[in-house]
Amino acid sequence: MTNVASLLLAAALFTVGVLHFLWTVGVHWPATSEKDLARKAIPDAEEIPRLLTALVAALLVGAAYVALAANWDELRLVPDWLYRTGIWGLAAVMVLRGLVEPFTAGKGNPLYNRLNRRVYAPFCVVLALLSVVVAVG
Fold first, then answer.
1. Which residue of 2, 21, 49, 73 has the smallest Cβ count within 10 Å?
2. Quick count: other Cβ atoms within 10 Å of Cβ 40?
3. H/E element, 68
């Protein structure tokens, strides 16, 4: 169970990280333009903040590595406690993003708010649950 959770978590984080990286280099998928992408991905923006998006991409790819290394000792490069701290930190961030952020919605555009309630927040809760399974496992 833990192996499957670790693989699913890493795959999801890596995929979303690559998607964020693509946004930094001008790929607008799944939107039709940068403005459309910004409206879907950011509460109040007309364009994608490239530096911040690149940072998020790097953090997501790093979190994917932590999700794998937390479960497989062969992948570890630093002391074990850093992986335990990292996976619990990931769970905390995803829980906050998934459960708290929707309650602060309403400040952004309606399209973002709808996507946040229906897609982004539930996805983050799933990532948080997978993180806990990996951390406890």
1. 73
2. 18
3. helix 50-69
DSSP 81-103: HHHHHHHHHHHHHHHIIIIIGGG
Q: Are 83 and 100 in contact (CB under 8 A)?
A: no
Q: State pTM to two decimals.
A: 0.92
For the beta carbon of residue 61, count every other beta carbon within 10 angstroms. 18
Residue type, 6: S
Cis omega (within 30 of 0) for bond into 30: yes
84, pLDDT greater than 90: yes
Rg of the chain over all Cα atoms, to the nearest angstrom: 16
Give the range among 57-66, 86-95, 101-110 with minimum mean pLDDT: 101-110
- Mark 66-93 as b/e (b = at least 16 C-beta within 10 Å): bbbbbbeeeeeeeeeeebeebbbebbeb
